[in-house]
Design goal:
The protein is α+β, with helices and mostly antiparallel strands. The protein has 19 helices and four strands. Helix 5 packs across helix 15 and helix 7 (103-119) packs antiparallel against helix 8. The chain crosses the membrane at residues 6-30, 42-62, 82-115, 122-145, 157-174, 186-205, 220-237, 246-266, 278-296.
């Protein structure tokens, strides 16, 4: 029966992700990421074999499998490992990686591969994975620092020297800045950590970090998550941190959180397990609600007077706009909004002589006419665009 529930969960989960991939537009952040020199070459050739969005969904599914394999190494039973996988999959920061183009998907993939090989004592392979990570993203800098501290705690001098070499190489490659003047970004950063996990899950994350810190079973996963978290909080006193650089190394702590929970749960007799059941249910409900709000958010447009205030607005509109333009035989537009122009280019709307406005123009020439394009969600108009076309190019409206 448990296998049936797990299979049903995975099926529904992937269905929701696919539904969102089809409904969301590509953001300017994703466009710029795909144009980033660090992603050019191998990664671009790899994802070009599929649709870009679905390539990252496939990578996300692989990451879920790797998290399950890591959980089996940390936890006692398959049932606990499945709980770990479900909680990991429901985290807003993790589930979003299944529907958007984001470097964090690749960082999670490499980090999980490293942990699995390291815990299985395939040290040469783990070292090779670390070497490859050096050329992927600057966020691995914080992983190297955590591994350096882990080496010190284990008095493993080879590990210390190797980690230090990676730290220095990363600084040289990415010109990492950890300076800045004291500023009040701490609360902002704390709020972003709440969003990564969902509030109740984050509280249990902090509790689990503390509980493990009091024991002698502080493994490599705890070192990575704990010291990355500490570094992020310290840096937030001096600068606005990029939460994506740190979040990956925090969510991998999920198996340890599940281990802490089941250790407390199983160490009590049935009559005294009630409060732990409440905690477990609270964690799960918090994760599910955050997941549903993250992905089933389109009805929020009906409640907002100004659609621009929708928290996911930057992932909407453009895909529908490109479809409407094509339906009206408009394949070239020119917009003063450079971000909009780039995003339309992703949907094969080229830059051309037809002028696209986000606000209604006050006047047009006699040789031109104005085409109005409304974007509606759930029968509510959320955005109107205006296109000035030459009269000789006037097309029949479909």
């Amino acid at each position: 029966m448990d296998k049936l529930y797990y299979t049903l969960f995975i099926f529904v989960y992937i269905f929701i992700l696919v539904f969102n991939i089809e409904s969301l537009s590509i953001s300017i952040y994703e466009i710029e990421l795909l144009q980033d020199s660090h992603l050019n070459g191998f990664w671009i050739r790899l994802i070009s074999l599929f649709d870009i969005k679905y390539s990252f969904l496939l990578l996300h599914i692989v990451n879920l499998y790797l998290m399950y394999r890591l959980s089996l190494l940390v936890l006692n039973t398959k049932k606990e490992a499945f709980y770990s996988l479900i909680l990991f999959a429901l985290l807003p920061s993790v589930s979003l990686l299944g529907v958007i183009v984001n470097m964090s998907s690749i960082v999670i993939f490499i980090t999980l591969l490293f942990l699995i090989t390291f815990i299985n004592r395939y040290f040469i392979i783990a070292l090779y994975i670390l070497f490859c990570s050096l050329f992927v993203d600057n966020s691995f800098f914080y992983l190297y620092i955590s591994l350096f501290i882990y080496g010190i705690s284990r008095k493993n001098y080879a590990f210390i020297y190797i980690s230090l070499a990676f730290i220095m190489s990363s600084i040289g490659i990415y010109d990492i800045d950890i300076g800045g003047r004291p500023r009040g970004y701490f609360l902002t950063s704390f709020g972003m950590f709440l969003a990564i996990f969902s509030p109740f899950v984050f509280l249990y994350f902090c509790y689990s970090l503390y509980r493990v810190s009091l024991t002698t079973s502080k493994n490599i996963i705890w070192h990575i998550s704990f010291y990355t978290f500490v570094i992020a909080l310290l840096l937030s006193f001096r600068q606005k941190i990029d939460i994506e650089d740190f979040g990956v190394f925090l969510v991998i702590f999920i198996p340890i959180m599940v281990k802490v929970f089941f250790h407390s749960f199983n160490s009590h007799i049935k009559e005294l397990r009630f409060k732990y059941k409440l905690i477990g249910q609270g964690i799960l409900i918090s994760a599910i609600l955050s997941f549903l709000i993250t992905f089933l958010n389109k009805p929020l447009f009906l409640l907002l007077e100004n659609p621009n205030n929708h928290f996911a607005y930057k992932y909407y509109i453009v895909k529908e706009l490109s479809t409407k333009l094509k339906q009206n035989n408009i394949y070239e537009v020119s917009s003063s909004n450079k971000s909009l122009q780039k995003r339309l280019g992703f949907y094969e709307i080229k830059k051309g002589k037809n002028i696209l406005y986000e606000n209604k123009p006050t006047s047009i020439k006699d040789s031109q006419y104005l085409k109005t394009i409304d974007i509606k969600y759930l029968e509510k108009k959320v955005k109107t665009y205006y296109v000035i076309l030459p009269k000789i190019n006037k097309r029949k409206i479909l």
